[in-house]
């Protein structure tokens, strides 16, 4: 396995992509896969890399802790940074190029004066308690798309986890609404054998809290079964199930349209494909999880 080429500047990223894609285009049917990350990589990121590696000639990963998406500067300062550990994971996944810019390189002159807005989708759900978070996400993702777009006619794919379902839905709209020539590829949630969705925050859970946290995936499973059987979802009953353990403090359980994130008003069974989202604090640690609900079959 050869080490990925690490580039630190926007100019170097553009030149490396140009240089590496040109011979692929000559050969015909070239593709580039981009995996944007903030580092602190875990098994979930491994899946993103694997999906990108399996489907593309050239795989580029970015490692950049984006200050624009943090509402609290203390959280930004505390965010774990260990590029060597990240590089080891990216190398094992067969990544070709790693873009790891400094903050001043990504935002020369400080916070940009012009940013991208995630619109109403960014103000719902997670956005309600983190104002500006999704605007920060789409601003950096738009920059990463611009910087990584390969020369035509190379196909351009980008990979995002379904774990952050709201982020994924917003980035799909970003690519569609602002005509970035990139295909957004969702990568399924990785779960422990018991069902807990993989997250860097899981490390903060005690054994007892990790067991209590299983209530989230259990509740989503119940909703999925009910939806598939065309039965009423009975949300208050499912909310009560989640709250059974004192360690679990439910923030929200919402059923939304996966394309717009607008709430689906339920009368009886689900009207068609829908997305169930849960956010809760478990022993003080905020966790999110989600599951697609099928329409009745
Ligand atoms: O999901 C993340 O790690 C970040 O929000 C992303 C997409 C890399 C943008 O900073």
From TrEMBL:
EC number: 6.3.2.1
CC terms in the record's Gene Ontology section: cytosol
Pathway: Cofactor biosynthesis; (R)-pantothenate biosynthesis; (R)-pantothenate from (R)-pantoate and beta-alanine: step 1/1
Keyword Zinc set for record: no
Keywords: ATP-binding, Cytoplasm, Ligase, Nucleotide-binding, Pantothenate biosynthesis
Keyword Nucleotide-binding: yes
Catalyses which reaction(s): (R)-pantoate + beta-alanine + ATP = (R)-pantothenate + AMP + diphosphate + H(+)
CDD domains on file: PanC
Binding site for (R)-pantoate: 69, 167
InterPro entries listed in its UniProt record: Pantoate_ligase (IPR003721), Pantoate_ligase_C (IPR042176), Rossmann-like_a/b/a_fold (IPR014729)
Subcellular location: Cytoplasm
Transmembrane segments annotated in the record for this chain: none
Xref: Pfam families: Pantoate_ligase
GO biological process: pantothenate biosynthetic process
Annotated binding of beta-alanine, by residue: 69
Binding site for ATP: 38-45, 161-164, 190, 198-201
Gene Ontology molecular function: any one: pantoate-beta-alanine ligase activity
Assigned protein family: Belongs to the pantothenate synthetase family.
UniProt function note: Catalyzes the condensation of pantoate with beta-alanine in an ATP-dependent reaction via a pantoyl-adenylate intermediate.
PANTHER family documented for this protein: CYTIDYLATE KINASE/PANTOATE-BETA-ALANINE LIGASE, PANTOATE--BETA-ALANINE LIGASE
Note: The reaction proceeds by a bi uni uni bi ping pong mechanism.
Oligomer and partners: Homodimer.
Protein name: Pantothenate synthetase
Gene designation: panC
